[in-house]
Each structure stands twice: as structure tokens, then as C-alpha cells.
Amino acid sequence: MRTGLLIVLLSLAFWACSKSPKGDTEIFPEKSSLAKGADVSWITEQEKSGSKFYNSSGVQQDIFQILKSKGVNAIRLRVWVNPADGYCNTDDVLAKAQRASLAGMRLMVDFHYSDSWADPGKQTKPAAWASQNFADLKQSVYNHTFSVLTTLKNKGITPEWVQVGNETNDGMLWEDGKASKNMKNFADLISAGYDATKAIDSKIKVIVHISNGYDNSLFRWMFDGLKNNGAKWDVIGMSLYPTAADWESKNTSCLENMKDMVSRYGSEVMICEVGMPVSEAAACKSFVTDLLGKVKSLSGNKGLGVFYWEPQSYNSWKGYKLGAFDDTGKPTAAMDAFLN
User: Fold this and answer.
1) Does the keyword Ubl conjugation belong to this entry (predicted)?
2) What is the pLDDT of residue 31?
3) CA pair distance 269, 238, nearest whole angstrom
4) What's the pLDDT tens digit per position in 80-118?
């Protein structure tokens, strides 16, 4: 009887410990480790166009396998509401998320709340939301966020992080959610995305993301404004795109900004995007290695990780020259930063 009971208890313990973060278990066993990530949202479009990828030895492999061999343990995927070509819509995001999940990688979902690019210079409403009043706009943010995450959850995928807006330096869904004109509106939109995310799983961490991680005055203006208007978030997200000439000073300023965000708001910090010209691979390796160390040094384990933006883009894919793969489709030295 005792032997049988012991076997049952051991089996239950093994089952509990072996639950994967890929499932809908709401358990993320690797969440205490530093996220070493890559945004690979272009990958399905690249593959459709014929792009192939090779490991450092020149052997053709799946991109997720190559990234994992370079120390990457997390994937970031952007979501557009109704993109004209279908890429980065819900179905496309699901297909990529399933591949990341099968590779055992953690997941960040980045909501742009637009039909195309949203960034500091443009935050265009989806066409289907363009004529909505503000109450309906908030509901659309909630519904879209909830719908995409439900699609993932129904396939056994629960992201560890959700970004509510992309590089929202002056808010999102302009003009209604333009922070410089109406910070309260922007705060309410952030909270709508936050509430939808937590309705899926309370353990998902919600990120508010703005660019120029070295610019403390920008971050204080934004997060003071959001806090004073009742916005909810878990993580402050940053972008950082230096050059070989200025990465050391940018990293130093970014570290001071990260420290301030931790002490001022009690928030965790994530570097959601980094990049450097592919021609500066050696400097990029030094930049990312140093930044990972600075993120890890934050008190209370408040630094969560660093994500490279579209490292697998090569041959100036769509004019982008800040990737970390060379013209033959192999990773450059920059990717070795994630092995540390």
C-alpha cells in the first residue's frame, strides 16, 4: 500500500514539474531566467519569398533551431489587426507562435493596434475602428487583445509577456489616444489592453513600450502621465538602436534610466528591441553583451531581458540593414552575444 501510494505521489510530482510553458498551464518555469530574445515576425514572409537560413557551419536549418543554438530562448511576434497581405494577422501569429512553442521558447506578443506599422511617428487606427467613438475604441482594444490571446490559448499557447502598443512615445490610436493631447485617453486604452490580457491569464506580464531607452525625460513624462491617470502595467519596455560609435554611452544612459524606472515606479524592465547595422557585427556583439549584463544587474531581478529586432533579416530585406545574419543567411558574430 505504501509503495503504491509512493508511486502515485512521485508520478504527480513528475507531472507537475514537467508541465511546459508551451501549454495552457499558466506556469512559466523559466521566468526567473533572463530572456534572450528575437523578434522574428518577418519569418513567414521571408520563407514564402524563398529565404533560407544556415547555421554557423553553413548547414541549412529551421530559423528557430539556429536561434536556439545561439542562446535565444524567447520569441517576440507583432500583431496587426487587418493587414492587407495577411502577414502578422492572428492566423500568421498563431503559426509562428506554434513553431516557437515547439522549439521550447518563451513568447512575447506585441500588439500594434493598427493594420500596419505603429511606431513613434505613426499610430494609425485600424480601418475598421476609424469612425468609432472613444468608448467603442476602448472596447475594440479589449476585444482584439482578448480574441488574439484566446486563439493562442485554445492551441495551448500562453505568452509570458504582452505588449499593449508598440513604441507608444506619444500614445496610440491617434488622434484619440495621442498622449500629448489626452494622456487620460491613452491611459484608458492601455488599461483596456491590460484588462483583456489579465482576463486570459493573470500571470501574463503587460508591457508598455516606448523607444529611446536612454531618454529618461521621455520615460518620466510618459509613465508619470500614465500613473497619474490610472493606467495599469507590469513592465516598462524600451528600444535601443545605437551605432558602433555611441553604443557605450547609450548603454550607460539606458542603465541609469532603467534604474530610475525601477525605483520610481517599482516596475520591471524589458529591452524589447535592439539592433545595429549588420556591417558592425563585432561592435554589435559587444553592445548586446554589455546590455544583457546591465539588464541583469538591476536590483531585485527587475531586468527581464533583451530582444533583437528581426536578426534573421539579411540581404537588406525590405531595406532593413540592422539584422544579425550575413548575406549568405548565416548568423553574424552579433548573435554570439546571446551565448553568454
Assistant:
1) no
2) 56
3) 8
4) 999 999 999 999 999 999 999 999 999 999 999 999 999
5, pLDDT greater than 50: no
- C-alpha span between 238 and 54 (Å, rounded): 30
Q: What are phi and psi of 303, to 5 degrees?
A: -85, 120
Domains of the chain are: 32-339 (3.20.20.80)
Please state, as a whole number, how many other Cβ atoms lie within 10 Å of the Cβ of residue 89. 17
Cell of 190: 492601455
> Which triple of cell numbers denotes residue 174?
491617434
CA distances from 82 to 12, 88, 129, 174 (A): 44, 9, 11, 17
What's the pTM? 0.91
Q: Report the catalytic residues.
A: 167, 273
Q: pLDDT digits over 282-317, tens only?
A: 999 999 999 999 999 999 999 999 999 999 999 999
C-beta neighbour count of 3 within 10 angstroms: 7
Distance of CA 114 to the CA centre of its chain: 16
Q: Looking at 106-246, which runs of residues are DSSP E strands?
A: 106-111, 161-164, 205-210, 235-240
